[in-house]
Amino acid sequence: MIMERLALLAPVPVALLVGLAFFLQAFSRPLLGGHKSQHRTESKESEPGSVQGDHENAVSKESDFPQDWWTSSNVFELERRAIFSKKWMYLTHRSRFSKAGDYHSFEVAGIPIFLVLGKDGIVRAFHNVCRHRAYTITRKECGSSMVLGCRYHGWSYNTHGQLIKAPHFDNVQGFDKSQNGLFSIHATTTHTGFVFVNLDACPAVIPVETIPLDSFASRHGIGQQSTWLGGQAIEGQFNWKLGLRFQRFIDIHEHKLPQTKYKVLSSRLFNHPPMCAEDIRVFPFATFHTIGDAALWYSLSFVPMSETRTSVRFDLYSHGERCGLRSSAMQDDLSSRLNTSIQALEIEFQSYSGNPMYVPNPRDAQRAILDILKSHSKLEKQTGAEVFPATRKPRRNARFERAEQLCKDLDCQDTWNRKSLAW
């Protein structure tokens, strides 16, 4: 009897389960279908496809980058204001300064700069223009002098940028030498020797962030005791941002350097594993690279000159034993490979500059640059004018006007002599 009752009750839960299954299937079908459709659309948008002639069939999202990203003078001028006038930039290493008075000259996006080492061991940065008539102070790429003079009218400055000599101005009422020193630039040297500058004219700026770079240097024994072995700057006809797409612009992994007897003996006795080459990028245009067990490292900078010209500079350093012929061979190899890579990039740039459909890869440094430009552009729209953080406001008062008139009088005295003294 019990078995018969169970048999009669069994169809009820079975029927309920079957009905519930049909209900869930019918209810969930539109949700699953909508999810799959959305997934397919997103995957099509993210896939890099070839540009088709019929843009109506294109499903990719319109690029945020302007079509003339690589060649526009307007974009470059905005970069000068938004990046090179207010961001920290690596320029060189402390080991390139050996004694007080040593200086190195640079030009970033048309802005002349020089660094000089003082007697106190501090590397300072200044705009490379005389306060008198804005003529160049240091003409050479590098040199050494405790007194830095402009040959236009003989104004001279010390390594702290202070005006120490101003012919014809001693008797000008109210002329103050202390108010006419070189325009200083924010500069800092990390404990591992990397020298950074920031051209922002504000008295105080946010400190540079160098923890990743200092960690990189510590792992490889890089410090202020490194030795500069040589370097070279090569001008390339391409936009500076193109060089940022590569983590290692020149491939030197295949270059095999002979190991010293000490390294061979040390690796055998202590079973030291070989050091691997490592790279690190520092915004906006510098990269640093180690060369395995060679006790060598080098910096590579893509310094902008204009929207279509870039100065590519490499500097080779030793952070351990003296390398002798090994460093000479490496320097020649770096120079050769750099020239080859620049030539290839120039050819590539020619094709990109005439192709408005070329879209930068948003995953590399291009996106960071674009975001900074957008932010600065927004600031300028709110201000109603271009914002150039590196610009110094001129003084306008009675004393300034008297000094200005004297300058004009001196300019007119002897044209021939003035031209012979001009840099």
TrEMBL record:
Keywords: 2Fe-2S, Iron, Iron-sulfur, Metal-binding, Oxidoreductase. The keyword DNA repair does not apply. GO terms for molecular function: 2 iron, 2 sulfur cluster binding; metal ion binding; oxidoreductase activity. InterPro entries: Rieske_2Fe-2S, Rieske_2Fe-2S_sf, Rng_hydr_dOase-A. Coiled coil: none annotated. Residues 39-63 have a biased composition (Basic and acidic residues). Pfam families: Rieske. Residues 35-63 are annotated as: Disordered. Residues 89-175 form the Rieske domain. This is Iron-sulfur cluster-binding protein.
